[in-house]
Amino acid sequence: MENTGMYIKNNFISVFVLVVLNLLPGGSCSRTSSAEPPGDVEKNKPNIIFILADDLGYGDVGFNGQELINTPVLDKMATDGIVFTRHYAGSTVCGPSRASLITGRHTGHSAVRGNPRWTKSGRPVDISNEENTVAKELKRAGYRTGIVGKWGLAENLDAGKPNNQGFDYFYGFNRHGPAHHYYPEKIWENDNHITLEGNVMMDKVGRYSQDLFTQKALDFIDRESENPFFLYLAYTIPHYELTIPEEQKAEYHKKDWPLRRMKMGHYRNDENGHVTYASMITRMDKDIGRILSKLIELGIDENTLVVFTSDNGHEYDQLDNEFFNSNGVYRGRKRDLYEGGIRVPFVAKWPGRITPGIESGHASAFWDFLPTVCDILGQEPSAPTDGKSYLPVLLGMEKKQEPHDYLYWEFNEKKGPVQALTQGDWKLIHFVDMRYELYHLKDDPGESNNLYTEKHPVAVKLQKLLASARTDHPEFPLVKRKKSGN
Fold this sequence. Notes:
Elements: H1 12-22, E1 47-53, H2 72-80, E2 82-84, E3 87-88, H3 94-103, H4 134-140, E4 144-150, E5 169-173, E6 186-189, E7 192-195, H5 209-224, E8 229-234, H6 250-253, H7 273-297, E9 304-310, H8 339-342, E10 343-344, E11 346-349, E12 358-360, E13 364-365, H9 369-377, H10 391-394, E14 407-411, E15 418-423, E16 426-431, E17 436-440, H11 457-468
Parallel strand pairs: 1-8, 1-9, 2-12, 3-13, 4-5, 4-8
Antiparallel strand pairs: 2-11, 3-10, 5-6, 6-7, 9-11, 14-15, 15-16, 16-17
Helix pairs in contact: 5-7
């Protein structure tokens, strides 16, 4: 386990003193910041908005090369901010990925290492009261905290609920199952399970959840704009089911695209998959534009860090018949530990703090977010993490960024158990049948040339790291198992 290396040791003022006095060209971040040091620490604690898409592929956004789906707001964020080209999700499915984001632990140490039905006992595992979370750290610093959208870490509806994990406000889904549908009949607001009158999930009528989430996010920003706040906006787009109001498909109906016919079942999919998928992503992009406009309207955009990423790789695009090229040049998709399953889009915008229009190849992961937040606040994390703050990269000081010794994942659902570990440009994957694969990601980003041999010196080194990268968990042993029926 790696200890968090705090880059800024004193308080938030020192962050900006360093920016003004010491920011030098380095790495890909080559221009100095125009940020001025704040005069009052309390008034200038930055707001933080973390926007998470659900099952959005690395290549599903324009700034990563997407040519068929329009994402002008996110592309403008990339122009105005920084793009991480090597940012990794916490896992290749949503539950453990979100746990990693919130707690700062990778899946070798996290309490949640798989989705609810994949535990040894068949009973879902949530995060506990003892867990440290990003929201708890921000509460400790005097922030107002809110989550809107998919939480997915409270299947048991007890200690794992957001209001027990440092969030002042919650609107959305505690559990995974209800988050599969865009016309839910009930939704949680704090501890109240509210009936959405007029919504019929099976018939896809009523209020579209994306509308509800965006409005609640805007309301939270309005309500808390005089305070330092943290908003975790966890959209469910573009996770199955694939559906969107018909009038929001106009942009893509005129396209001469082949029909990918979708089936109806648990997921109440619209028939035309390509049009629906593209429309949902563009709709999310427009809603992010509303969030950014609200910050400008309130005069707080320059004091707000906005981050956008995805919880894992895509599920929609077919690898044997790609249409959108959702994983870009990378191999695999959701439920793979190849790059296409875990490498995700990442863009951050912070006017006056982040130099516009830059890219970084720094290898970072979801478990870095908690120590990054603590670094911004000038406080040590309250509990051990596996992360390293990427604040130096955000502030244009990539040469001073402390790299990871390694990054680690494990996954044990249909294709598991499988483990993966990267160190620098090298990546080792270990499958249940004792098969190993070794790739050099800089030379072979598509993981097409397996360099593994038992005596390869890098393989020997990474195998030793792999053996020490995890702790045992009674509910998530690395043995083959089946999904429970609960």
